[in-house]
Write a structure and sequence with these properties.
Helices cover 25% and strands 39% of the residues. With 166 residues, it is of the alpha/beta class.
């Protein structure tokens, strides 16, 4: 499977729950796909005009095909760019949580140093001491040559969604 086929497969998977949007300007590298899912939950009392509480959960997925061999430095650079993006996320008093998933797709085999660096990467941000919620970064590396998917600790549950169909 080549990178274009994998991106198309992932777009089909994301279509059911996500909307596709223009990638954020904060990122310095091009994303092939930027998908956004916004969910709002409310609890009412007697009628919909009396809301007891409401909260929002947002999820963002960015797919990037790496044009060159993936290195630990490139992985760290990607994390730093998504960290800046998370710092500028719009949050309000109804925001509860956000998950930003960065999926790097590599046509070249992924080295052990990249997998080790990926396992160490993590980023969590609280907004106003969690009064305005929090955000976590899930990083996924897709090795097309070996048909393997790697992730950081937060992305382990999400990684199964990026697995190859057998």
């Amino acid at each position: 499977m080549n990178a274009d086929e994998y991106v198309e497969m992932m777009k089909e998977r994301l279509t059911a729950s996500f909307d596709f949007a223009e990638p954020p300007k904060e990122l310095m590298f091009p994303l092939q796909v930027w998908a956004v899912h916004n969910r709002k939950s409310e609890k009412y009392f007697l009628s919909k005009s009396i809301s007891l509480y409401s909260y929002k959960n947002d999820e963002y997925v960015g797919l990037h095909v790496c044009p060159v061999r993936l290195t630990p430095q490139a992985l760290q650079s990607c994390k730093d760019q998504f960290k800046r993006l998370i710092d500028t996320l719009p949050v309000d008093d109804q925001h509860m949580s956000s998950i930003v998933t960065s999926a790097l797709i590599s046509a070249e085999p992924v080295g052990e140093s990249v997998v080790n660096e990926l396992a160490r990467l993590k980023y969590h941000k609280d907004f106003r001491f969690t009064l305005r919620g929090w955000c976590d970064l899930a990083m996924i590396v897709v090795d097309l040559a070996n048909e393997k998917v790697y992730s950081n600790s937060f992305g382990q549950k999400i990684a199964k969604n990026f697995a190859f169909c057998n």
